[in-house]
Structure formats: C-alpha cells, structure tokens
Amino acid sequence: MSDRPPHHAVEQAAPEEIARVAELLGRAPSGAFSVVVRDGAGDPVVIRNAPFLADGTPMPTRYWLVGRVAQEAVGRLESAGAIDEIEALFDPEIVAATHARYAEERDALIDVDYEGPRPSGGVGGTRRGLKCLHAHLAWYLAGGGDPVGRYVATRLAGKIPGPVASIDCGTNSTRLLIIGPSGETLAREMTITRLGAGVDRTGHLDPEAIVRTLEVLTHYRQLLDRYGVVAARATTTSAARDADNRVDLLDAALSVLGFPLELLSGEEEGRLSYLGATTGILAGESAALVIDLGGGSTEFALGERDNLTAVASLNMGCVRVSERFLRSDPPTVEELAAGRKMVADLLGELIERTPAIVLAPLTIGVAGTIATIATRALGLSTYRGSATHKSVINYAFIREELALLASLTAAERRALPGIEVARADVIVGGLLIIDEVMRALRITEITYSETDILDGLARSLLAH
Fold first, then answer.
1. Which residues of 234-272 are buried (b: 16+ CB within 10 A; e: fewer)?
2. Beta strand pairing status for 231-236 and 261-263?
3. Residue 273 CB: number of other CB atoms within 10 A?
4. Ordered domains of the chain (ranges, CATH)
5. Which pTM does this prediction carry?
6. CA angle, 29 as apex, 230 and 47 as ends, to 5°?
7. How far is 224 from 263, CA to CA, in rounded Å?
8. Phi and psi of 87, rounded to 5°?
9. 48-68: burial string, b at 16+ Cβ within 10 Å, e else
10. Contacts of residue 217, Cβ cutoff 8 Å, sequence gap at least 6
C-alpha cells in the first residue's frame, strides 16, 4: 500500500512558467502544476494542479485562476454579492452534480491503493453550494463545462480574455466558428439544416427544420463549453426574417445556447460579411465588392478597406430560387428562364440605386454555393478551406458549370466530386444567381473567401 502521492499525478510547468505564476499569485506555488489556459499574449490564465502539494498535503482545487485580469474581474463580481445571487439561480442538484464531477476528475488521478490523506470536496473544495467563483470560472475556461463558470464568463463577457465564438443559423446551413484570443481558428463547423425549407411558400419555419437546427445548436453549445468560450454571438437571417413563427426558433435557441439568437437585418448581415470576407484578402486602399450568396438572400457590400460605402440585401438565394422556380428534376428551360428573370429584375433595381457597384476592382464571394464552385474549379473531390481560400473563379467556368449541372438530376449531381449530398438539389439555383450577378455587374472573375459573416461576428467580439 502507498501512503505517498502517486508519481503519475504530478504535473510540472517549465521554470519560466513557475516564475510567472509566482509573480501573478504574489507567492511561490506550493505544488506541481501545468498551465492549461493562456491569454492572447501567452500569459497564464488557468493552471491545473496536481492532487497533492510537494509535501503530500492534499490539494482539492484542481483548476486555479491565476490571470490577473480575470482574477480582478471575478473579485469585483463576488464583492458585489454575486455568489448569493448566482446560487439562487441554480438548482442545488445541478451544483452538487458539478462538484461531484469535478471531484471525480481529480480523484481519478490518485492510485486506488493510496491510503494517505486525500483531497476532498468539489469545485473550490466544497461539496455543496458555491464557495469560490474563481474556481468555477477556472474549470470552465479549461474546458470542464462548469455551468456556474459558464454563467460567470457570460456575466464578464468582454472583460476577460479567452476564446470567442460566432454561430450563423442560415436558410440552408448552420455554422460555427471558435477563435482563440489571438485570433487563431480553434473550430469551424458547418451542417446543412435547411432551416428555410418551405418558408418562401408558406411563410412559416417548418417544425422539423427547427428541430434539426436545435440539434446542431446543442452540439455547438457543447463545443463552446469544451473550448471555454468567454463571449459568443449567434445570428439568424433571411429564413427567420420571413417567417411569422420565428419566435419558436428564437425562444428555443435561447434555452439551448444560454444567449439570444439575434435576428439580423439584411444590411447588418452584409456589413458583417464584408468585415469577415475582407480579412486577409483586401490589401492597401483597394476597393472590393463582397457577395454573400445565401439560401434565402444575397448580400452585396461595397467598400474600401474598413470603410463600407454601400450595402444591399436582395431576396434571392439558392433555396428560395430553387423552391420557387426549379421544381423539375432536372429543371426545364422555362424554369431556368423564370428564375433568371427574377434575379435579373432585382439586380437591375440594385444597379439603378447603386451604380458604383459595377465598378469594384475586386469581387469576393462567400458562402456555400461559391465554396462548391471553388472546390469544383480546383478539381477537388471534397471541400478544403486551406486550398480554396483566395482561389479565383472565372466567369467562363461558372457558365460551364451551370450548363452541366442544370442538365443533370439531383441524384446525378450528388455523384459528382466536390458537391455535398445535401447541396445537390439547390446548387443550380445558386449557380444561376451568381451567373446573373457576374453578367449584370460585368464581373469577369470572383475570389472565394473562406472567411465570412462568422469571422465578422467573431472579430466584433475580439474587438471588445
């Protein structure tokens, strides 16, 4: 039987990390630890302690908040009476289960035959109630999914360093981006949920579409917890704007995410798309037109660097055009012509209002239709953002692709390389739109950007 701390539980930071943590704490650490969360400058924010100090004394607090900014922010929160306030908000059983899970993670590092004194308690060394919001936040930031820590992070959004996230519930797909405090991408996901299915015809969000979207949002909430996200924004656009039962989605999303799903105007959608799409592409004083071709609408944002000069949102998207006009499989010549006429009419009104839109020296395209075209243009079998980002697609290829895909059934399109199974039924509608856009605006080539409204949303959070 062993009465000394098990060696495999010891975690040891580098000497320079130990010195920096000692400086942050105002004293030398008494036990072994590792740095598990850092801010944008690489400074320690959270450390993970071994279950025992160097002399064998049990160490109940597995995660410790050492970042000065975060410490001070939580301290102010506690001084204002937040512990009692937050304790009243949480079901005691949820808090107790959180303590038990914390203790289980820590105690799993101790050999089963160890008979010496053991650490006890849960978060902050307690078994029930709330004792230390610093400890709860530390565990959440380290990816522990602590619900109290998550709430504290929400209360301190914009005041503490950490990853930020953006979610976009579009007409065709639901997407997530998580970036670190230095702006590095930690996670980027996309799932086709077809939230806007049937909205153009019925004016309602289909209950099954809402369920599909909420299932994806539940998964995304788990990812936010895993990465210890400190601030997030979630938005929905064209489909929800057009639906008279959008409150069903908004209320349910709030319950799942813990923060509101914002209903963006078309103009705000265009502004954020411009902000995200021009990141890393627009150089010097160059002007650019950003085209965000979505499922229900297409946004046009014209600007020069960060100076946006014109924004417009047109009710034409790959899902809307496909559902309204392209009902045959494959679509008929008459259906394609009807779809073209609607798009051309809308574009004519746009050009009349904003003639400068035809003069942009650089056109940047974002979203799934253009991503698919870029994938196909490069001869890739599946989408790869690292390969397609900043790739250039010429108008001739767009016209060839439209002619080819419009001649095939959806099943035949699904068999082609580079086309997602769930996008095969709306890709012709998307191609029709971009073909008409390039013709009307006299665009000869379009540059695909992997960064888009998600990146604009996330950057808006990092800026704070």
1. bbbbbbbbbbebbeebbebbeebbebebbbbebebbbbb
2. parallel
3. 31
4. 7-155 (no CATH), 164-264 (3.30.420.40), 283-451 (3.30.420.150)
5. 0.83
6. 25
7. 21
8. -60, -35
9. bbbbbbeeeebbbbbbbbbbe
10. 167, 169, 174, 234, 253, 256, 257
Spatial CB neighbours of 377, under 8 Å, sequence gap ≥ 6: 391, 393, 397
End-to-end Cα separation, the chain, in angstroms: 54
Place of tokens 């809307």: 320
Does residue 128 register a pLDDT over 60? yes
| Exposure on the CB side of residue 439, measured as CA atoms within 13 A | 17
Distance from C-alpha of 164 to C-alpha of 181, rounded to nearest angstrom: 7
Cα–Cα distance for residue pair 3/26, rounded to 1 Å: 31
Structure tokens at 65: 């908040």
Strands of 13-129 (E only): list them: 31-38, 44-53, 63-65
Give the integer Cα–Cα distance in Å for 191 and 25: 44
In this predicted model, what pLDDT tens digit does every residue of 160-173 receive, in sequence order?
989 999 999 988 88
Q: How far apart are CA 202 and CA 215, in angstroms?
A: 23
d(CA 303, CA 300): 10
Question: Which runs of consecutive H residues, i.e. helices, occur in 174-293?
Answer: 199-202, 207-226, 238-242, 246-257, 266-277
Task: Return the structure tokens found at 435.
Answer: 């073909």
Tokens of 390: 């900043």
- Compute the distance between CA of residue 154 and CA of residue 385 in angstroms, rounded to an integer: 31
Q: Is 354 helix (H, G, I), strand (E, B) or coil?
A: coil
pLDDT 10s digits, 29-87: 888 999 999 998 899 999 999 999 988 899 999 999 999 999 999 999 999 999 999 99
Q: Which residues on adjacent β-strands are paired with residue 290? A: 301, 364
User: What is the rounded CA–CA span in Å between residue 293 and residue 315?
Assistant: 10
